[in-house]
Amino acid sequence: DIVMTQTPLSLSVTPGQPASISCKSSQSLLHSDGKTYLYWYLQKPGQSPQLLIYEVSSRFSGVPDRFSGSGSGTDFTLKISRVEAEDVGVYYCMQGIHLPPTFGQGTKVEIK
Amino acid sequence: QVQLQESGPGLVKPSQTLSLTCTVSGGSISSGSYYWSWIRQPAGKGLEWIGRIYTSGSTNYNPSLKSRVTISVDTSKNQFSLKLSSVTAADTAVYYCARGVEGIAVAGAMDVWGKGTTVTVSS
Fold this sequence. Notes:
The complex is a heterodimer.
Chain A: E1 4-7, E2 10-13, E3 19-25, E4 38-43, E5 50-54, E6 58-59, E7 67-72, E8 75-80, E9 89-95, E10 102-103, E11 107-111
Parallel strand pairs in A: 2-11
Antiparallel strand pairs in A: 1-3, 3-8, 4-5, 4-9, 5-6, 7-8, 9-10, 9-11
Chain B: E1 3-7, E2 11-12, E3 18-25, E4 34-41, E5 48-53, E6 59-61, E7 69-74, E8 79-84, E9 93-101, E10 110-113, E11 117-121
Parallel strand pairs in B: 2-11
Antiparallel strand pairs in B: 1-3, 3-8, 4-5, 4-9, 5-6, 7-8, 9-10, 9-11
């Protein structure tokens, strides 16, 4: 299985400040079609995960533009330009290039 | 819009079979290019993909669970189901169903999730 490693595992952020989460995969997520199948999900407290970003950097419908994804190959980053109270929860990266799809351990974001 | 709802017993005895159903509403399970997945999350832990099914009936399972998992689909009822046999306490978790986007990727983005149902394995 591809191992997804996220850092940090927790993050405390002042509202209005930026936040950044790293995700590294044990194998390249670049497909022969030229796309990279790395996704980001947010699980808000008491809720199911929700899709934020697909194919590294494309925001899902309704996701605010303060969220951005970047990276290539095996190294990826999710950035929140200005954290808001509603952004608290656990963020997961997930790879979709090899079965089974695997998730990172999660990064818990809280507000200071 | 499409919504998913998990249902099934919240308590299962060790060695028995866990059975859950995911009902799709707001759209046909057969329309569009999607696959239908099960994911689980033990309390306070991360997410584990269990497996998926296409409406053609084709399935893929996590090798770690493959010997115990069966996923099926009933398009007439707009439902898909999970059976996990020989359960132990380690199978205690919140179980989610989700819709995934079919495409060139082995696993496209899972864009719609159910709220999840808690299953406890205990005698």
